[in-house]
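Standup notes
- DV: blocked on the single-chain target, sequence here:
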Amino acid sequence: MHLDLVNSSGYMLRNKLCRTCGIYRPPRCSHCPTCDNCVERFDHHCPWLGTCIGKRNYPYFISFVLSLLFIIIFIISVVLHFMV
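- DV (later): unblocked, structure below
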């Protein structure tokens, strides 16, 4: 079952009914089987954070990954400094 909508640009958008949740999902929304929730702009389920990565928390996920990168670079530089 589909619910057709028209956005402000005049394009036809189609909302799908989620069979698991029973709600109409907006475009690019997917159901996460791990969390059992529909997530808008679903990217993946992160096992380290224990949550789905989607529209609402994508900037926080990127900052988490970048902070891990900086910590790894710092640890490698300290280890290499004391090895030399």
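- Follow-up: The chain has a mean pLDDT of 85.
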